[in-house]
Amino acid sequence: MAYSKKPLVGIIMGSSSDSRIMQGAAEILDEYKIKHEDQIVSAHRTPSRLAEYAKHAEQMGFKIIIAGAGGAAHLPGMIASYTTIPVIGVPILVYNDKHPKKSDTSKFSAFGGLDSLLSITEMPSGSPVVAVGVNKASNAGIYAMKILANEFPDLKKKLKEHKSNQHNSVMKESDQLKKEGLSKFAKKKFQ
Length: 191
Ligand code: RP5
What we know:
The protein is an alpha/beta fold. It is built from 7 helices and 5 strands; from the N terminus they run E-H-E-H-E-H-E-H-E-H-H-H. Helix 3 links the parallel strand 3 (64-70) and strand 4.
């Protein structure tokens, strides 16, 4: 089967406000033509949907679930408890702008994303979830590709190309920095 035939990745998030960050996972999967199905599943506002979603994910034959959540981010861990599909958690630094009257600082979580990171990574023994860094949804997309590449050799080839593109872009910047000198390079880049 070609990897682009049907959705292999389920992307879920706890709130529509998480879509701002979670789109990073979708972008990388889209770039490599990996189909994904995206939904909002709130562990505390739609708890019964958690179990339903886990069943749905298994019926759909997803190979990986990417789950993003902020604050007391229990969505990735709870989904992992319901299914054997590997879950990649994306800890989200909450930025809730649904309530226009809130001041900008109260839109952020009090612990700057560490709350979500620890909620996801500190799952008790026996029910693991792996996690990427805070807000690093694109890394979750790349990691999902890496898992899929074990099964789809053409995807492995594309990942190697991705690595060599990264190498080439650093080399290009380094050549430019060497040619222009640090002061001029940094001025051009940041001013
Ligand atoms: C979590 O609470 C969500 O994952 C989100 O990051 C955070 C805030 O949710 P909203 O109040 O924006 O819906 O459940």
